[in-house]
Specification:
This protein is an alpha/beta fold and 387 residues long. The chain folds into two domains: 187 residues, 3-Layer(bba) Sandwich (FAD/NAD(P)-binding domain), CATH 3.50.50.60; 172 residues, FAD/NAD(P)-binding domain (3-Layer(bba) Sandwich), CATH 3.50.50. The strands form seven sheets. The protein has a five-stranded parallel β-sheet, with helices on one face. Strands 9-20-10-11-16 form a five-stranded parallel β-sheet. The protein has a three-stranded antiparallel β-sheet with strand order 4-5-6. The longest helix is centred in the last third of the chain and has 16 residues. The chain is globular. 41% of the residues are buried. It binds flavin-adenine dinucleotide. Flavin-adenine dinucleotide binds next to α1, β2, α2 and α10.
Length: 387
Amino acid sequence: MTDEKDNDRYPGIDRTNDRPVYVVGGGPGGLAAAAALRERGVRAVVLEKSESVGASWRLHYDRLHLHTTRRLSALPGLPMPRSFGRWVSRDDLVRYLEKYAEFHELEVVTGVEVSRIEPAGSDWLLHATGGRELTGRAVVVATGYNHTPHLPDWPGRDTYTGGLLHAGDYRNPVPYAGKDVLVVGVGNTGAEIAVDLVEGGAARVRLAVRTVPHIVRRSTAGWPAQRTGVLVRRLPVPLVDKAGDLMCRIAVPDLTEQGLPRPDTGLYSRVEQGAIPVQDVGLIDAVRTGRVEPVAALDAFDDGKAVLADGTRISPDAVIAATGYRRGLEGVVGHLGVLDERGRPVVRGGRTPEQAPGLYFTGFTNPISGMLREMAIDARKIAKALS
Ligand SMILES: Cc1cc2nc3c(=O)[nH]c(=O)nc-3n(C[C@H](O)[C@H](O)[C@H](O)COP(=O)(O)OP(=O)(O)OC[C@H]3O[C@@H](n4cnc5c(N)ncnc54)[C@H](O)[C@@H]3O)c2cc1C
């Protein structure tokens, strides 16, 4: 994918500059930023630790489709083909990312992991695989919001002899046919895996819930939930909370009797705290019909059993922890004082931290309007700021 010569599409690109902008991470965020930079004639080199672009997407579970629409998920300068349908599959998204890098003739160097970034005068020095030291005039960090799988250190975890895995390692329901499975966590991933297990023939599926989620229909009468997210994004939180509550009451049946009461906090207040609503891809029906059983949160393991927050002890054959990810930025930029207490960059998009001019971040929020859409917007802002 590395291209050393100028071409007709980007006649203004400056390849003589030996200090390119380095983009760390070849996922959608990094590729979008590199393409937007290139469009403005700024040389950008993407450093990707795995062997190909879109590495995260290659590892997601088989049935995954975007919850955001094809149109609102495309990256700058290349629409997704109509043949992908409205809800793009995992494999099609990977195809799109490969095509995207090729179409924009991005310089992508694979197999290079950046371990530390530090200032070097007005430039930036990147320490990378194999003792490489690379100097860039700026850096865009796009290493992913879902970087490091987080598996809680439940007391007694070692006593559990069933299969315990993080959702990031789940592929499909085949190994769980006929099994009793506990899915822990009811974000979008946990909700979808629970449904996948039911449809794939698991004997029993329980879903451990600590905080009841807001559940919204992916689309209502053809109107995608994401579009509502885009429209309300800048409105006052209490107003959106009220509207969201009403929308949920109309569109989603009351599942209190089945163990999933309505949340008592506002939908948008929760988004502000980092929890986006669960988009229904079958959970409502599965809970309503008893095929997915909500249970109390998982607190510990004891003597090989799973101990729930209400004291119940159960013995599932397998536990799938849909317990989220960490940003994993501490080692790379933690020493620069650019992270908040939750390990997220203090600024993002076209702005850089005051003490670290030239250090950009993209993809570190989880907005109600869709992360892909937001990264496309950030890419343009970063490119504008850097050109
Ligand atoms: C299951 C799931 C479903 C999602 N569905 C949607 C959806 O429907 N719509 C939507 O808008 N968003 C969705 N998202 C959120 C988001 O769009 C994706 O996570 C997206 O892949 C984020 O892109 P990214 O480039 O920021 O990170 P990633 O795709 O994670 O890419 C980061 C890249 O950086 C590389 N990397 C990491 N560390 C280093 C390093 N130190 N040096 C070099 N390379 C490094 C990784 O190998 C990876 O290729 C979903 C997320 C998940 C987990």
